[in-house]
Design goal:
Length: about 200
Amino acid sequence: MKTGVRPNQVSVFSVVFAVAGVSCLWLREVGMPHWLAWLACAAGIQLRLLCNLMDGMLAIEGGLRSPNGDLYNEAPDRLADTVILAGIGMASGTEWARNLGWLAACGALSTAWTRSHGASLLGRHDFRGPMAKPHRMALATGLCLVLSVLDGRGGGAAALVWGLGAMNAGIAITLIRRLRGISRDLRAKTTTSAESSTP
């Protein structure tokens, strides 16, 4: 590409935007307006998603695939997920939200691992929800927008706990659906192979 930007660099920038967005939440302690901090975090999440879109476009449509592209496609994504979900929970100041934030981060890693492992077994990725990455980030962005109004006025902590609780419930359902889907497809694959080998 004429700009010289490579897909792997864009993938790394997704983490930079995630860290920058969540870091704004801590700037509330030194005088940053609460509403602005949460809006900045929402912007960081969306810029992270834009990077996720652009790295794929550069690699596929721009013809800039690299031997380690798959690694860069996954590793920064997992780190950004952890930073955003755990960071939002930690920024609330309540034990419930902190625990739910870390639980959501672990759940996000688990859904990604399940998808990747399923792809290694079946040759295709299962992106089913209801709480795949786009859904998690949409909910996280929505929570940031809600907190930009409620934080400091009362009700913000409760909204975050309920939102993260809903996210964790969705993640659990997603894990179950993906694992059941992989198991079902593996059984079908075995049955098909056995039938095709029968004389």
